[in-house]
Amino acid sequence: MKKDRIYLLTLIAITTVVIAVGIFSLNYLYRTSEKRLLESQMQSSRREAREVSALLAQQLQSGLSKENVIANLQRSIENTDTQSEFICMYNTEGIELCHPDPRQIGQRVDESNSTVSELDYSIPVSFQQLLKKGKTDGGIRSFQDERSEIIYVHPVSGTDWMVASHANLSGINQQLQQLYSRFLTAHLMSGILIVLFSFVAVRVISRRYEQTLETEKQKLRQDVLGLSMLNEQLKEIQVRLEDRLHERTADETGPKSRILTYKKDELVSISVSEIAFFYSENAVTHVTTFRDEIYHTNLSLDELLKQLDSKNFFRVNRQYIVNIHAIENILRYGQNQLKLITNPRIDDLVLISKNRVAEFKQWLDA
Predict the structure, then answer these.
(1) Residue 205's CB: how many other CB atoms inside 10 A?
(2) Residue of higher predicted confidence among 3 and 228
(3) Pairing of strands 137-143, 275-281
(4) Where do the domains of the chain lie?
(5) CATH no. of 2-177
(6) Hey, what CATH class is 245-364 in?
(7) Handedness of CA 67, 70, 73, 78 (dihedral sign)
(8) What is the rounded average pLDDT for all residues in the chain?
(9) Distance, CA of 335 to CA of 354 (rounded, Å)
(10) What confidence tens digit (pLDDT) does each residue in 183-192 have?
(11) Going edge to edge, which strands form the sheet with 148-155?
């Protein structure tokens, strides 16, 4: 049940992240596409207005009267669809000169009729003011009835005419909605695939990790069991050695039964059986008894090891020689090392390296 809950929470977390990233990226892509589409339509309207304006200017230069030029333009645009893109023409006073709907001809643009703003939604100006400037300009034209369109005006050289190219935003908005639907579908499909693949990957990785962890636990149990058996053997050996200690009679060539030591300026002879361990520090050999008394000797650890009973003392490392009776516990340390706990306690970390573990076990079992 605990694993199922973890998997459920993992699925919820992945889904939440995918949804958050999807919403952000979808909005970003939509806004970017919308801006580029509007910019593309604006460029198209600007180009169309410029080309029509140049054509009208050429007709005037060829000797056609203004009335004929206006009549020709009206015939070419009359009855075109005003629901998408169309061309019309004003003068700088805002009077309609040409329009696909002839009924619009002669009407004046009211100052409050509509406003024009740039694509970045800067401060709008009225369409009438835009025409009065008589300069190339354009943007989003907004009406009072909430209609909007892209418009671009271009003056006709030598006249007060302003050719206007219109593009109804309803068609553009429809394209944007279709584009948004495609983006949404693509994000939903990719989001579902990402969630599923991520969830499966988490399940696979977690199972492999659990198998590895279980193997390590089993190995650790075996190591602990082995150390427990080793500690039991140590206790038995200590009991046997204590029994033998009372019966053994050392000869002249055998191990020393006493060690000559110093405490400050006092010369002290200590029985070897009272010594818990020897250790070397700062080129000085120290002797610690089972009563936690500390003495010093002039002998090095190497010299001491030759004079001590190998059944009772073992050189665990370069710094320590330990009496078997001082070993209280043996612990596993790292991968292949052993850690000794003594009584009395040694403040330092007493380790038996992996190279001496086998020899140490043989010494215990001797």
Answers:
(1) 10
(2) 228
(3) unpaired
(4) 2-177, 245-364
(5) 3.30.450.20
(6) mainly beta
(7) negative
(8) 84
(9) 9
(10) 778 878 887 8
(11) 96-98, 85-91, 161-168, 148-155, 137-143, 114-117, 125-126
Q: What is the 3-state secondary structure (H, E, C) of 161-229?
A: EEEEEEEEHHHHHHHHHHHHHHHHHHHHHHHHHHHHHHHHHHHHHHHHHHHHHHHHHHHHHHHHHHHHH
Question: How many angstroms separate the CA atoms of 238 and 364, rounded?
Answer: 9
Specify the residue for token string 């994000």.
Answer: 187
Structure confidence by residue, pLDDT tens digits, 37-93:
778 888 888 899 999 999 999 999 998 999 999 999 999 988 887 777 889 999 999
Question: Measured between alpha carbons, how far is 324 from 312 in angstroms, rounded to an integer?
Answer: 5
69 Cβ contact list (under 8 Å, min separation 6): 56, 59, 60
- The pair phi, psi for residue 110, each rounded to 5°, is -80, 145
- Residue where the block lists tokens 């271009």: 154
CA R_g for the chain = 50
For residues 142 and 164, what is the distance between their CA atoms, to the nearest angstrom?
Answer: 15
Alpha helices, DSSP H only, in the chain?
A: 2-61, 66-77, 127-133, 169-247, 301-307, 357-364
Q: Tokens 């643009």 appear where? A: 109
Please tell me whether the peptide bond between 344 and the residue prior to it is cis, using omega within 30 degrees of 0: yes
* Cα–Cα separations (whole angstroms), residue 175 to 28, 82, 170, 179: 17, 17, 9, 6
272: confidence class by pLDDT, cuts 50, 70, 90: very high
Structure tokens, 8? 């459920």
pTM: 0.45
- Edge to edge, the sheet with strand 351-352 lists 327-333, 337-342, 351-352
